[in-house]
Amino acid sequence: MPRPAVVLASGGLDSTTVLALARARGFAVHALTVDYGQRHRRELAAARRVARALGAVEHRVVAIDLRAFGGSALTSDAIRVPKGRPARAIGRGIPVTYVPARNTVLLALALAWAETLGARDLFLGVNAVDYSGYPDCRPGFLRAFQRLAGLATKAGVEGRARFRIHAPLLRMTKARIIRTGLALGVDYGLTHSCYDPAPGGRACGRCDACRLRLNGFAEAGAEDPVAYVPVRRAHLP
Question: Reading across the β-sheet that carries 4-8, which strands appear in turn?
Fold first, then answer.
């Protein structure tokens, strides 16, 4: 019988690829999406589409309102999402789209569900190559959280479980992630990455997430199937 695993599924390109990888590795995938009050709420619908399409055993959406604290362009209307940043600026410093403690919160929720399921494996789509400078997308954070999981759970303290945090995209470029997903049959048209979509839902094409995504598709030699607002799209400078 396949072992259960909890996969953090945002509806974006990276987490969708991870969900496909977890299934390909033989896990019974339980997809967890967190509605934390994010500006780009269209990703919640994308997560539902992805979970259905990729055959998740179960998909849960948990609400926790990080807008109560703000501090990020993704959780506060008072902070603008940066647009048109050059490649050399993306990944340098911590941008205003960083949501304080987000991955800590998300992994804690995934850990809670994993313990109740009897699952020992948690998957997430963090990346330390083509990423936006977030501190909670780095290897040291993942190692620390894995140690915490053994100390903070009944299963860990009683020695019944050794939790494993899987971040299979950690060392991949965006182009390699896309090629991996396409080889697994992922339909990236189901996903949503844009931090600041237009009212009709089209991706802006200019925020960091869009630019990294577009550049990744260009380098992978593939066409991005999602709809963008009608502006000139180009390779990252």
Answer: 58-63, 28-35, 4-8, 121-123, 164-166
